[in-house]
Amino acid sequence: MDNNELVLSLSRAMSKFYVDEYARAAKFREILMEHGIMLTASEIEGSRCKTDGDLWWKGFCYIILEAKTNLAVAVQNLFSKRCYIISSR
To answer: For helices 3-14 and 21-34, what crossing angle results, to 10°?
Structure first.
């Protein structure tokens, strides 16, 4: 697997607009699958929650995918909060 090719594919696909988070997660899983990484969306045992994708091996979860359509906003808010905390000290 060529890491540069994977990153370029993800960069191109994730910079597009999607109808909702489910469509974004499906595209993310599709690209990973093309590169030999098999994530599947599944229900978390003992809850009504589902992952957008996960990878298990020998009973251990190694990857959990959480797709968000507003990630840039979340990062901006986190950055703003960090700046506020630093400046208020």
So the answer is: 160
